[in-house]
Amino acid sequence: MTRLRVETTTYPNTDKVYAELYYPENELVPIATTEPIYPNREEAVKQSCVMFDCWMSLLAAENCKD
Fold first, then answer.
1. Total structural domains within the chain
2. Which of 53, 14, 19, 51 is nearest to 35 (CA)?
């Protein structure tokens, strides 16, 4: 099963956290990068996983149209 990797970084000017999503997990370039809006790493990872799940659902729905 292919897995998702989420890396987080704290933006120095605001102390807010942004996330980079990598899919598959060994990919070198992120498929998405969030804005630095999260108060902590845990929230950034949680919301990134929700965002990824929504994206995958949309892709699945697109594939089922045919």
1. 1
2. 19
